[in-house]
Design a protein that fits this description.
heterodimer; A: mainly alpha; 6 helices; B: mainly alpha; 4 helices; flat
Chain lengths: 71, 134
Amino acid sequence: MKNHISTHREESGLSQAELAEELGVTRQTINAIERDRYDPSLTLALQLGEFFGIPVEDLFDYTTDTTESHQ
Amino acid sequence: MVLTLDSIDTVQRRKMSVGLWGFGGFILGVSVPLNTGLLGVIIFAICALSAMFIVHNTSDVVYDERDQQLHQQASGLTLTIFGYASATIFPSLTALHASGVYDWPVWMTPIALLIAVLYVSYASITAYLQWSNK
């Protein structure tokens, strides 16, 4: 899922390793999320939103085709 | 530069722990045909304890939710592959055996039993998780 985590992280002046330490995950996980290679758990997504002080829906672009199939 | 346990990063810890588990398992495996089983078990135990120590003796996160998800996907895929293979191979061999075309090789029996135990365990754990998640 596309996201804006790297933008918010860089605005906060944090490295991937520092953000990972704050959230209790590995640097590789933050890197994978930023590169759109891993969708975080709901808990981690909410933690990211809380950490940056923004709603989680502003961090992630939820625009998959599955939304149409559920309607 | 001296490499101490405190100075190694999480990637090195992961590699070391996987390497120790692999090495210990290999030594255990080859110790049986070499008639050095007890020594193999001791080396395996040392490797296993060292691997656990390396992973847990740090304040850094070595494995996280992404690793857990990868392991769940790998476990699911492994079970699926074994499931389809077993559902194809064993009924075919049983049918051939029943029609007198083919005899079950002796070495195939423990494999079939192991697969059966694996899937009974899987079904039991699945049932337990369904029950506990009510």
